[in-house]
Amino acid sequence: MVLTQADIEKYLATSDEFWKTFDSSLQANYSYWHNACKNLDYEAMLKYFKEFEKYFDFFFQFPVLKKEFIVKITKQDDDIFILTNFRLLMKQKEIGVVSIPLKKIISYCENDSGIIQYEKNDKVINLKLSYFMGRNDISAQIDRSADEEIDETMYYLISKSIFDISQSFSNLSLPKLAFPEVKNQITLKDNSTKNQNVSKQMDTNNANGVGSKRIIIASKIIIAIFLILSLYTIPAVTGWTRILVLVICFFGWTGIYAMKGEEYSHLARLIIGGIFSGILLIFVISHLKSESIFTPDKNGVVNLVSKLEFESFNLTSKEISKRIWHFCKKAPDAEKIIVTFVIKGNDIHGNYLEQKFTPYEIEKAQINEICKFEEDYYVYGYSGAGTMILMQNGYFE
After folding, report:
1. Could you report the per-residue pLDDT of 234-255, keeping only the tens digit for each?
2. pTM greater than 0.85
3. Alpha-carbon 352 to chain mean position
4. Residues 42, 159: contact at Cβ < 8 Å?
5. Mapping DSSP to helix (H, G, I), strand (E, B) and coil, where does residue 137 land?
6. What would the pLDDT profile of 32-46 be if each residue is shown by its tens digit?
7. For the chain, what percentages of helix, strand and coil (3-state, to nearest 5) are there?
8. DSSP secondary structure string, 276-338?
């Protein structure tokens, strides 16, 4: 690549040109500072960004193209990411300082892998990032910049530092960009408040973005909890409860997967995983509580109360037999199970009644016998206890 002074004057912005372009860029709704700065005049804008001067100074170590402006800055510890309408500038301990033209990016942190793939000198370069700016920001800016005209000279300029170019072309005079002098700094209270708010957002690394390590760790923990709860709850519950739990797990995992690779993915996963983990936790607690009633006391006895609606003699008889089989299966080690059935329903005169039956005792030998049967055979193919219990309490066919 051969550079001339004419190329420098044609392609690179002066300090005044950059700041006027940057000021205009704040009117774009995709600018990170749009809402806070869209109504500020030029001097107020400079006051607003004064505390970010060190990040602009870092950016100014690189040639800045005419019409180039910063869209977003994020940082974490010593890592700095600066996104412009032409490039992604990164500073990270593991990779050093890298400036990549947006049009040279092949893929960026797909599936939150932290791997950026780009083209350089007809080769494909892969970089592994320990922290990265949100994929939505990068992808959206790549799409917006698709129509930007950029030639090989521009590619070269934004891929190099001013130091590199000065070493290669010592005869060239490069524009020196700097933060303008700000008079009467921070005189507007509203602007000062907004400035503090944006500073706080930046220092916490836009906490609802992908970059926050705390959110990344928390989201992974909550997903692990959701997985454990799913694996525990699905086989533990039965009947309609299992169907409900399966639906909850389906929507939970679908929601978590749908957020994969998005800018706010980790925060979204944290929220979605937290909500559905909470729901599953309620099921787990409820299940454990219901299971605890089948724990024998110190004498090996399980005392139960079971309520049911009286429909007809035949149906109610089968339901009682089914419950007895279920109780024996739940407490196979009990020495005795005592069940008090409470029947609700209308008598022959249409009056609603609630009748507590005489406690029905199931001895150890009978528990062992019942546990040998499958449910359907005990209820439908075997003379279960339901008929006898109904008749002992005054119900007849």
Report:
1. 777 766 777 888 888 888 888 8
2. no
3. 51
4. no
5. helix
6. 888 888 888 888 888
7. 50, 20, 30
8. HHHHHHHHHHHHHHHHHTTS--TTSEEEEEEEEE---HHHHHHHHHHHHHHHHHH-TT-SEEE
